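[User]
Protein folding is very new to me. Any chance you could explain this protein sequence and its structure tokens? I have pasted everything here:
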Amino acid sequence: MKRIVLDTNIAIALLNADSDVPLNLEKYEVFYLPIIVCGELLFGASNSKKSKQNFKKIMRFIKTCKVLNSNLLVAEEYASIRQQLKDNGTPIPENDIWIAAISKVNNFPLATRDKHFEHIENLKLLKL
């Protein structure tokens, strides 16, 4: 079974029916959302002018995916990634470190449009 983790920008593209993204994801059968991505999506909905409508749309989308939570293994991976990025002088946003840690611990590729994920060693990426 082909599985992939969705970064926030890919989830938003899917929610907005961005024509490029679905074609690239057709071969995947299971979509995972890190809990951090869920939080970012829900914040975006609550911060929008159509918050109730967007909240319902996002909740429907989240329910079609499998949510990946954090745990101690993820926290250890987060610390390792953050240290590696600091040592290399290539910091990235905090939430993205958590998203990468969740993807790595679960050994699933991450679909993203963000190039800064390339700074993380041994992270499987699907760049869209």
Observations:
- The radius of gyration is 15 Å.
- The chain has a mean pLDDT of 94.
- DSSP finds six helices and five strands in the chain.
